[in-house]
Amino acid sequence: MKSQKIHRQKAIIDLLQEHGKVETALLSRDLGVTEMTIRRDIEQLEKEGVLYRVYGGAVPTSGRSFEPPFSIRLTQKTESKTAIATQAARLVPRGANVALDFGTKTYFVAKELRKHPGALIAPTGLHAARELAKNPAIRILMPGGHLKPNELSIYGSDAEDFFRSHRWDVSLVSIAGIDTDQGLTDYNRSDAKLKASLIHNSDCVVILAEERYLGAVSFAPVGSLEKVHIVVTDAHPDHKSLTDFHKRGINIISTQNPPHEGDGFAGAEPDRDTD
């Protein structure tokens, strides 16, 4: 069954991250399937860029550029991601022009934005577009570009030009690292360049970041913190990185201490001047 396959591949990825290598025979024993099944899983994960096959097993791709596939990420930390998405969607005023990044957190944001009739939303992922299309009152503007078949996300210069040539009321962006010194970073250059284009021409940049990404630095630079207005996270408000971000004039919304209903977009704007 598909769910069993996803569960197996998630287990393989978790073990890779923990041990730095996995062995086919041990995976077969621990997961209760044949070695042939494990080899097929490893072969698929290699095609998705998650790992490299080696004799007798597999090793992960380089650490800072390592990102599990969408189907696996969608099953991880769903409660935290849903909470972040709920708070992020509340920042979007009715009728806004919204640039929506690709990722599992923004997929959950798309589910929330279905409640925003009249909004014009430009998603960079087909998963989010499909969710938004469930409400015909939402206007969906699809960028052109290349499509990553395993992720169903759009990338490339055409997509980047599209986002840079439009003005956005809000950009909702998911990243792999946000650090006081290194700014925003992501797993690979193509995604990082697209995220930078979403940020470039936006009146309000909202970064969605789980606690593990705070203070982290990934492979490809996206941009500086000066472009960021709000960070929505599941970390405690007293987290050191959040304190540092707030000193930089970035407003913080924590799912552990969310704003009261009705605070809305205006109440979430940063306390500093912007360009």
From TrEMBL:
Keywords: DNA-binding, Transcription, Transcription regulation. GO terms for molecular function: DNA binding; DNA-binding transcription factor activity. Pfam families: DeoRC, HTH_DeoR. The keyword DNA-binding applies. Residues 253-275 are annotated as: Disordered. This is HTH deoR-type domain-containing protein. The keyword Transcription applies. Gene3D superfamilies: Winged helix-like DNA-binding domain superfamily/Winged helix DNA-binding domain. It comes from Streptomyces scopuliridis RB72. Residues 5-60 form the HTH deoR-type domain.
